[in-house]
Write a structure and sequence with these properties.
Bound molecules: pyridoxal-5'-phosphate
Number of domains: 2
Structural class: alpha/beta
Order of helices and strands: EEEHHHEHEHHEHHEHEEHEHHHEEHEEEH
Distance between the termini: 41 Å
Strand content: 15-25%
Oligomer: single chain
CATH superfamily of the largest domain: Type I PLP-dependent aspartate aminotransferase-like (Major domain)
Strand order of the largest sheet: 4-10-9-8-7-5-6
Length: 441
């Protein structure tokens, strides 16, 4: 009998025993194409020699040195390389162990920045419905997925949520995409004015919404307007690129596609690519300087901040991405994947929308394409699809609650950047079979 406390008490999971390129292999020797990189993590597949060697070499040299006492070469080098490629005036990297920690750090830094800046009344965080920012209490409070929040709501700090930019579900038939983007962006200004402009500390959003919406990019012009509103009211813009960052969308930083830069950015998953747990919070020079010239320290910290082995993995991953121009490869393979998705599923009577960027794609299931009506949640479509796909040797990322935390189902694909066209085709064959098993037409 297992003593591991699993995610789900009644699931019977295979044991993963090996990784081979884009595939995971279980104890029975069955191979699974990792079509979602777990949860958009394994961007380099599962057997990248350069990253594995960097991890081993770092352990042999220096396994750990607490950042209260030392800095380390891998952390310094990773920060230099990230910042050299980061948008806008992002200038400092704060290394943590994952996405939720990066988000917690971002929220606390935003608050401390305003205090150091002589505006201690700025305390409100605004985020968006149907976003996911992590499972620790601060990150969960920022997230806008009702199902995840519900039972913990008495423990969550007060965060207000505006609409996401979700064109498929929310744009009116007589509205242009541009007018739609401006309408939903306007909700931010309205909320700032409602709360009192000098009480708002930050606005947080995922540039391309991952787990909870299923790879939803914004319409053009939305983020330009968001940036403008934040600037007008002195509200910090925090972009959560934990899932969509590090090349996943065909841009090293997802916000590069929007032509804007945040004040604080969080990244994780693809940064360690699964070889080590690592996340990072990047902030602008202005924010860093406010802390440095004020109290002189960020009142935060975790034991494993800037872990040398995790940083060595992150550095090797980033070098792989940059040296091999893998972000361009993501764009090229992404175009192929999009074409194939549209060819295979574009006319499916129960797939209402195919959206995404780069190698980050979502299919949304509906009972009726004309009305965009979701399936009844009691059908448990997403869960059944996950099981069927695994049966066909495909790991993908189905999720219920697309529309409001309860209604709606989607499946997300986030395959490794090294996937070949033949491998992507094999994955889509499996997905097609799984969809047919679950939603016979
Ligand atoms: N932010 C986003 C956008 C995410 O997708 C996730 C995880 O899925 C997180 C934060 C939390 O990251 P982690 O699970 O590493 O704590």
């Amino acid at each position: 009998m297992s003593h591991v406390f699993p995610r789900h008490c009644h699931a019977s999971l295979p044991t993963a025993t090996a990784g081979d390129g884009c595939f995971l292999i279980d104890a029975d020797g069955k191979r699974y194409f990792d079509g979602s990189g777990g949860a958009a993590v394994s961007c380099l597949g599962h057997s990248n020699a350069r990253v594995a060697d960097a991890v081993k070499a770092q352990i042999d040299t220096l396994a750990f040195a607490h950042t209260g006492f030392f800095t380390s070469d891998p952390a310094e080098d990773l920060a230099d390389l990230l910042i050299a490629n980061a948008p806008g005036t992002l200038d400092r990297a704060y290394f943590v162990s994952g996405g939720s920690e990066a988000v917690e750090s971002a929220i606390k830094l935003a608050r401390q920045y305003h205090i150091e800046n002589g505006e201690p009344q700025r305390r409100h965080l605004i985020a968006r419905r149907q976003s996911y920012h992590g499972n620790t209490l601060g990150a969960l409070a920022a997230g806008g997925n009702e199902w995840r929040r519900q039972q913990f709501s008495p423990l969550l700090v007060d965060v207000t949520h505006i609409a996401p930019c979700f064109e498929y579900a929310d744009r009116h038939a007589d509205e242009t995409p541009d007018a739609y983007g401006q309408r939903v962006a306007q909700e931010l200004e309205d909320e700032i004015l409602r709360l009192g402009p000098d009480t708002v500390m930050a606005f947080m959003a995922e540039p391309v919404v991952g787990a909870t919406l299923g790879a939803v990019p914004p319409v053009e012009g939305y983020y330009a307007r968001i940036r403008e509103i934040c600037d007008q009211y002195g509200v910090l813009l925090i972009l959560d690129e934990v899932m969509c960052g590090m090349g996943r969308t065909g841009h090293l930083f997802a916000c590069d596609a929007e032509g804007i830069a945040p004040d604080i950015l969080t990244t994780a998953k693809g940064l360690g690519a699964g070889y080590q747990p690592i996340g990072a919070m990047l902030c602008t020079r202005k924010i860093y300087d406010a802390i440095a010239s004020g109290t002189g320290f960020f009142q935060h910290g975790h034991t494993y901040n800037g872990h040398p082995v995790a940083a060595a993995a992150g550095l090797a991953v980033l070098r792989e991405l940059l040296d091999n121009d893998l972000v361009a490869q993501v764009r090229q393979r992404g175009t192929y994947l999009e074409t194939e998705l549209r060819r295979r599923f574009g006319q499916h009577p129960h797939i209402g929308d195919i959206r995404g960027r780069g190698l980050f794609w979502g299919l949304e299931f509906v009972s009726d394409r004309d009305t965009k009506q979701p399936f009844d949640p009691v059908l448990g479509l997403a869960g059944r699809l996950k099981k069927a796909a695994i049966g066909h040797g495909l790991i993908c990322y189905p999720m219920p609650g697309t529309r409001d935390g309860r209604h709606g189902d989607h499946v997300m694909l986030a395959p490794p950047f090294i996937s070949t066209e033949a491998e992507l085709n094999g994955a889509l064959d499996s997905l097609e079979r799984a969809i047919t098993d679950v939603i016979p037409t």
